[in-house]
Write a structure and sequence with these properties.
The protein has one domain: Alanine racemase (TIM Barrel, Alpha-Beta Barrel). The protein has helices at residues 6-24, 42-50, 61-70, 88-91, 104-117, 143-151, 175-189, 218-224, 233-236, and strands spanning 32-36, 55-58, 76-79, 97-101, 121-127, 156-163, 209-211, 228-231. It starts with 5 loop residues before the first helix and ends in a 10-residue tail after the last helix. The chain has an eight-stranded parallel sheet with strand order 7-6-5-4-3-2-1-8. With 246 residues, the chain is an alpha/beta fold. Bound molecules: pyridoxal-5'-phosphate (PLP). Pyridoxal-5'-phosphate is lined by residues 36, 38, 59, 80-81, 164, 214-216, 230-234.
Amino acid sequence: MDNINVKENLETVENNIAEACKRAGRDRSEVTLIAVSKTKPNELIMDAYNAGIRDFGENRVQELTRKMEELPGDIRWHMIGHLQKNKVKYIAGRVTLIHSVDSYELALEISRQCVKKDLKQDILVEINIGDEDSKFGVPYEKVTELVDRIIGLPNISVRGLMCVAPNVDNSEKNRNLFKKMIKKAVDINSNKMYDVNRDRSQSDKVLSILSFGMTNDYVVAVEEGATMVRVGTGIFGERDYLTGRI
Ligand SMILES: *Cc1c(COP(=O)(O)O)cnc(C)c1O
C-alpha cells in the first residue's frame, strides 16, 4: 500500500489505452484518461500531476473543493460521484465536468446556481446502464427525455453520457452494455430537432463525450468508443475507506 508507484502504474494504463485504441482504429487523442483520486492524499495526486496527468476525478464535494484549493490551478476537476442538490452551490461552474446528473431537479439547481453567478457548467447525464438497484443514474428508457429537458435550461450544457457498469469478474461481460450506451448517444445525436437550439461551435454532436470504463473494464471501454475513462485503483492502488478519507 505504501509503495504505490503512480508513475509506473500510469505507464501501464497508458500502454493499455494506446493498444486498445490501435485495435479499435482510434486515435489516442480521442480518449481522455481521468485519474480518480478520491480518498487519496495530495502527494500521490502530485505524482500523477508530475507525470503529466491534468484530469482528476473526485466523488465527494467537500474533498473535491479542498483539493481544488490545495493543488495546482491548471488541474481539470471532474465530479464523478452522486451529487446532492444542497451541495451544488459549492461546485457549479467551478469544475470542468459534472458526470453524474441523473434528474431534472439536479440539472435545474446547477443551472440556477450558474445563472446566479454568471458561470457555465458542462455536464453528462448518468445512465444506470446495468439496471442495478444499487446504482445511481437514470433508467435507459428515460435518458432521451431528460436530455431533452436539460437542453432547454440556461448556463448548463449536456455534453454526453456517463455510466458506471456492473462490477464483473470478466470485463467482456460489460461489452454489450457499452455498445448500448453508444447506441443511445447515436440515437440522440441523430435527432435533428437539437440543431435549432444549440450552439454547435464546439462539436457537431449534441453528445460528444462518453464517460465509461474503470480499472476493471477500461480496455473494453476504449475498444467500444469511450472518450473518457475513469481509472482509480489502477493508478493509485486500492482505496482504504476507513483511514483514507480526510
Ligand atoms: C471510484 C470511481 C471510479 C474509479 O474506480 P476504480 O475501479 O478504482 O478504477 C470511476 N468512476 C466512478 C463514478 C467512481 O466512483
